[in-house]
Specification:
Elements: H1 2-8, E1 17-19, H2 43-46, E2 51-53, H3 72-80, H4 96-101, E3 110-114, E4 117-123, E5 126-129, E6 132-136, E7 145-150, E8 153-156, H5 172-191
Antiparallel strand pairs: 1-2, 3-4, 4-5, 5-8, 6-7
Amino acid sequence: KLIDALARLGVAQNTLVLITSDNGPWYQGSAGGMRGRKNDAFEGGMRVPFIASWPGRVAQQRVATPVAGVDVFPTLLALAGVPLPRDRAIDGNDISAALLAGAELPQRPIYYYSDRELQAIRLGAWKLHTRHGVYGGAPWSFPLAPLARQGPWLFNLTRDPDEAYDVHEKFAAEFARLIALREAWEREVEQNPRGWSER
């Protein structure tokens, strides 16, 4: 109905429509075979569709490189020709080149939070889970069992998209690299929790 209304008003060619969600399904929904649900740092709780429609501007394509919700703000500013604010850190990246021209996106860390707790970090195919609470019980059982703290784990999402096989001992270098990234990020947030910048 929204797309039809834009066409009827003659503004479809001048309107970017983004469709996404803030989290995966709760226990009544399907996460498409991925582990986890809403409030989980597993892919089933965080990986959601991101659809962009802009007739004549966004080509019909599938972008395989992960993007994050924090990318929407810098992307919309770039498309509108508005400079980024200089008084704060911007966590997201401008992904307009990928949307408009199918450009390859650079690899960068993506941080997975549940509430205010950093629970996982992804870089390319590798995903590190810190030690964090994991829902117990069958996905359909109520009430949910208490959160049991488990991990840390390292998963290769290319080979193991449902995060079933921890490989942190086999790939110790990747594990250490992501641990270092996580620690650096947490130090940065601790030193400047509001993200203000002096640029």
